[in-house]
Amino acid sequence: MAVQDPSYPAYVDSSVIMGQTGLYQKDVQKFANIEYMRCNPENGFFPDLSSLSRPDIIFFCSPNNPTGAAATREQLVQLVRFAKDNGSIIVYDSAYAMYISGDNPRSIFEIPGAKEVAIETSSFSKYAGFTGVRLGWTVVPKQLLFSDGFPVAKDFNRIVSTCFNGASNISQAGGLACLSPEGLKAMRGVIGFYKENTNIIVDTFDSLGFKVYGGKSAPYVWVHFPGQNSWDVFSEILEKTHVVTTPGSGFGPGGEGFVRVSAFGHRENVLEACRRFKQLYK
Predict the structure, then answer these.
(1) Rounded Cα–Cα distance for residues 273 and 149 (Å)
(2) What three-state secondary structure class fits 53?
(3) Residues near 175 by beta carbon (within 8 Å), at least 6 away in sequence
(4) % pLDDT > 70, the chain
(5) pTM of the complete model
(6) Residue 165: its pLDDT value, please?
(7) First-last CA distance in the chain
(8) Cβ–Cβ under 8 Å, residues 115 and 109
(9) Displacement of CA 242 from its chain's centroid (Å)
(10) For helices 267-281 and 230-241, angle between their N-to-C axes, nearest 10 degrees
(11) Which residue from 21, 62, 94, 132 puts its CA 20 to 30 A from 216's CA?
């Protein structure tokens, strides 16, 4: 397994649950037998693929949670080429694709050859507030084969049909409504609202002199607190402002020294949180 570092914890957690890793190494805050692909401001939040060994599975999220970084077309071409050269399968998480600004790819399948090396998974959670309704989708191309030529889609179907009876009719009806012209317009409106929240948060931390990343193509703002423990920063913000952020180290060792601030929330709450941030750090 290879994962972006930092990244959404479920990729590592699911690998651990399935027994695909070694033991947790407390001194480096990593599980053995996982390739942690460091993504930081110095490399533009895109990993150095030349330093990787040959992973079976590459988990890749773009736009990334928590950094908010969206991979460019050239970067995804590199990723697809690497997977082809090494016989790896990319599990591409595009849960925030509708937040992308500019012409960065919204799907791995925009890249030539990706159907031979990638699975893409996404969700209505961040587009339409379906976090409690639970409805997503996964695309497994017929061209994606194991090394012996057996279609990955057949194994995927066997697993899903064994473990899951499908989303409820109510959830599916909601998803279809989201994909209607009116639904798409409403989703774009919701995303636009959260992006306005993001701009407010970015401007707040910018005005306080912090280095801020993300926020352009994702509803998350990645704020740098150099030399500080991210849990200590989280605790200070919680105790002094009563605002909940997320410590960066919760997303992997590469998140140390950062906190993630989310734009999901009512406008008045975001404005009040930013007022408290200014009070704390002025």
Answers:
(1) 54
(2) coil
(3) 124, 130, 135, 167
(4) 100
(5) 0.95
(6) 87
(7) 43
(8) yes
(9) 26
(10) 110
(11) 132
CA distance 120 to 60: 10
Q: Is 45 exposed, middle or buried (0-12, 13-18, 19+ CB in 10 A)?
A: buried
**In which band, very low, low, confident or very high, does the pLDDT at 279 lie, cut at 50, 70 and 90?**
very high
Give me the phi and psi of 20, to 5 degrees please: -95, 5
Q: What CA–CA distances, in Å, run from 137 to 55, 119, 123, 133, 217?
A: 24, 11, 6, 13, 21
Instruction: Give 48-62 pLDDT, tens digit per residue.
Output: 999 999 999 999 999
What is the DSSP pairing of strand 258-262 with strand 246-247? antiparallel
* Mean pLDDT computed over 144-160: 96
Taking the C-alpha atoms of residue 56 and residue 4, their distance in angstroms, rounded to an integer, is: 15
**Residue 129, by phi and psi: left (phi above 0), alpha (psi -120 to 50) or beta?**
left
Residue 233 pLDDT level (bands cut at 50, 70, 90): very high
Least confident of 18-32, 78-92, 239-253: 18-32
Angstrom distance (rounded) from CA 107 to CA 111:
8
Residue reference for tokens 């636009």: 192
Residue-wise burial string across 223-259, b where 16 or more C-beta atoms lie within 10 A, e elsewhere: bbbeeeebeebbeebeeebeeebbbbbebbebbbbbb
Strands in the chain per DSSP E: 2-5, 24-25, 30-31, 35-38, 57-61, 89-93, 118-123, 136-139, 212-214, 220-224, 246-247, 258-262
| Count of other CB atoms within 10 angstroms of residue 95 | 20
> CA triplet 73, 75, 76: central angle to 5 degrees?
65
